[in-house]
Amino acid sequence: MELFRIRRDIPFMKHALVLNAISAITFAAAVFFLVTRGLALSVEFTGGTVMEVAYEQPADLAAVRHVVESLGYADVPVQNFGSSRDVLLRLPVLVGQSSGQQSEAALAALKAQNPTVVLRRSEFVGPQVGQELVEDGLKALGLVIVGIMIYLAVRFEWKYAVSAIIANLHDVVIILGFFAFFQWEFSLAVLAAVLAVLGYSVNESVVIFDRIRESFRRHRKKTTPQIIDNAITSTISRTIITHGSTQIMVLSMLLFGGPTLYYFALALTIGILFGIYSSVFVAAAIAMWLGIKREDLIKSGNKPAESDPNDPNGGAVV
Amino acid sequence: MNRYPLWKYLIIAVAMVIGALYALPNLFGESPAVQVSAGRTSVKVDVSTVTRVEQALSAQGLVASTVQFEGTSVRARFEDTDTQLKARDAIERALNPDPADPSHVVALSLLPRTPSWLAALGASPMYLGLDLRGGVHFMLQVDMPAALQRRADVLTGDLRTALREKNVRHGGVNRNGVNIELRARDAATLEAARAVIQDQFPDLVSSETPEGSEFRLVATIKPEAARSVQDQALKQNITTLHNRINELGVAEPVIQQQGADRIVVQLPGVQDTAKAKDILGRTATLEMRLVDESTEGRAAADGTGPVPFGADRFPTRDGRAAIVKKQVLATGENLTDAQAGFDSQQQEPSVTLYMDAKGGRVMRDVSRENIGKGMAIILFEKGKGEAISVATIRGELGNRFQISGSMNINEANDLALLLRAGSLAAPMEIIEERTIGPSLGADNIAKGFNSVIWGFAVIVLFMCIYYMLFGVFSSLALGFNLVLLVAVLSMLQATLTLPGIAAMALALGMAIDSNVLINERVREELRNGASPQSAINAGYEHAWGTILDSNVTTLIAGVALLAFGSGPVRGFAVVHCIGILTSMFSSVVFSRGLVNLWYGRQKKLKTVSIGTVWRPESGSSVAKAD
């Protein structure tokens, strides 16, 4: 079975401008939503208490909200979580009360309203810990970017490093933009998924760059855009199949993983889909515009030795 | 060219065997068990408790699979949860006759069912994180400034004493925050004071800060000394927590220092958060009091008379009673340390107590006037007191004194531990807390497991259809990858969390990338007209560079997460990184080994089973090879 019967190199680079324009627009849209709507940060980052309770019958959200408000919390998000019987509450940090007291008071009030309620999970994060997690997350992101740039600059060349990072950060911003637009919960697990996607995306770009290097070596007559087209076309089967396989795994997580892994899997899905786009088209195009040449990658000894002006045969090449 | 030397096959075989062995314990599941541990710090759990447990069970006609004494508790395993619950009740009734004053903690737990031959090899199932097991997680912050203030207090008192001994008349020594301020009337006194500080107080560094017309000296604790105070405070708090948590009868509590001033406590299987928090915050107190040696007191001790007015009665560890005066001489706050050791004169096991200046002074005064009389140390827990030591005062005591006689070295160690447990060095505050119910834990495992298995099945199916035999090899390599991953995680006893299982699924999805690269490359070589053997060789060669690069970049992301992640994210990062490493081994070395085994020897290899090798010139696909 062969799904990719491609006779000629597809001229991707001819449309480089259009492709990049599309990605620039989506990038701008993502930034816009990030700035205007902001991320729906989870308790882990903001600090506060999360309680997950389960009822025997489908829960009456309005009643639960009423109970919570009577405790003095205004506008507390109360929602179903997974099934109609599970309810998730997020209580903000109350000065003067410890979280333990908060969750106990809440549970007691809920029990008074409906004795069959059961606490499945409760989480409290102090605001200072939340702040630290945000900082740690940013540091991790910074480390990944620096590490990858150094590695790529060493293995290939700085132009490749720059183009890979730009293309893949664009990926990350788009994922964040989706989360901001739909106000999906951004938790630590999602951050982990985003960083994993960054690594995975760069992985993609590396495969293309590797092929470009090989094509430079093999096809001495082709121009740079042709080389790039050749590289992308020959690896397209592998790209699609790999992304497909990873997506199967992620789909399996989306379907079977339950609510905890849901947003994690969602972040991965977006990353995988946009990853193809950014790593393949955007990274290669940026590299082309930065002016990659055969000579960058092939450090062969083709340079003629310094000719000795007194040598009558100097400059002669067989 | 496609031949692996024998040593490479040996490595693969060894890896397979080790992988299988160490991944195996995860298949055995867990058995419901009842765990019996000491309910009070003074109760001992040992082999005799095993007999008592067995008797309690047989009296009710319950059968345990095994009853063993392990470490500090007795564990009895059962076939099912019904028997487990009945057994818990039976043991509880037998060992704790007075429910208001339990001497033992009888708790339910789940223990892994690893067979002994595997356990002997050091194989055990993966360590499940809280979100898979259910339980409670706390992060406590130790109030370091308070610890430093205490130390400054102690030093202030000591400084006053020292200055008085040297006859330096000062205008007042006071603690201000974490510094000590000394006022003097003239420069000479200040100089003398400074000399005293330099001589006798290596932890302090002083500086003059004149304030108007007054002469003032400010002494601060040196940074190294401050750091060691903080370390001490943290360690002492951890020991105290340990003892208290043992009371809860938790199967495998985790109590660890995190950073300079935080402690992480994880109690798997505990449901009652309120009780756990209460126990953690509780203060056990120590008091030192004189024994009431009057006739009435002695009569009360023998049990022939009532407790006299002005005295209290406390049980001792060996069942007798100690009658002590109500007046408290010193408390656990004055005790800075207690160490077990040997008596300097008679080489008897003894416990040395270190008091602070105030405690030392009290001890000196009291002991001078009461030589020959008894002094008791009473430990108060949950409001009830127990005299853990009654000793005769033999001479004048001071900051440091020893209690010896009538105890063996184990008892001396226990006593020292009890004394140290008597107080928290600095108050703690809960800054993070997570409770997961047990049903959610089991749910999460099932969900994680399902996602991995189904995803794996679909990928394997696709690979076999698309790449035929090479697809089969790739799938075998993927399976091997999974086994290796589980084995390494089990060996390292790394914590597995739900994101960790997600990382496993992701790792498998990414691992297949390497094999796809290789297979596509081989197809391409075949398409370009290479002979099968050289196509295989060239495919693996060219793919390796790309595989290395791409895996390293993903590894960089994994390492960054490992460095800065915490909690569940850390679980994800650990599995992610290990998954990348095992995938490099399995997709390249293992699959090549299989391919070489199958095709290597065939010198005149015509075709390989890699699915359709489509050649554009012919216009139609070449018939499926092999």
Radius of gyration of chain B: 34 Å
The class by helix and strand makeup of chain B works out as alpha+beta
Find the biggest chain interface: A-B, 78 and 78 residues
Instruction: Give the number of domains of chain B.
Output: 4
| Name given to the CATH homologous superfamily of the largest domain in chain B | Multidrug efflux transporter AcrB transmembrane domain
Lay out the secondary structure.
The complex is a heterodimer of chains A (318) and B (626).
Chain A: H1 16-37, E1 40-41, H2 43-46, E2 48-54, H3 61-70, E3 78-81, E4 83-91, H4 99-113, E5 118-125, H5 127-155, H6 158-182, E6 185-186, H7 188-218, H8 224-256, H9 258-290, H10 294-297
Parallel strand pairs in A: 1-6
Antiparallel strand pairs in A: 2-4, 2-5, 3-4
Chain B: H1 6-23, E1 30-38, H2 47-59, E2 66-70, E3 73-77, H3 81-95, E4 104-112, H4 116-120, E5 127-128, H5 130-133, E6 135-142, H6 144-165, E7 172-176, E8 179-184, H7 187-200, E9 204-208, E10 215-221, H8 223-248, E11 254-258, E12 262-268, H9 273-281, E13 285-290, H10 295-302, E14 311-315, E15 321-325, E16 330-331, E17 335-342, E18 349-355, H11 357-369, E19 374-381, E20 384-392, E21 400-404, H12 409-421, E22 428-436, H13 438-492, E23 495-496, H14 498-527, H15 532-564, H16 568-599
Parallel strand pairs in B: 5-23
Antiparallel strand pairs in B: 1-3, 1-4, 2-3, 6-12, 6-22, 7-8, 8-10, 9-10, 11-12, 13-16, 13-19, 14-15, 17-18, 18-21, 19-20
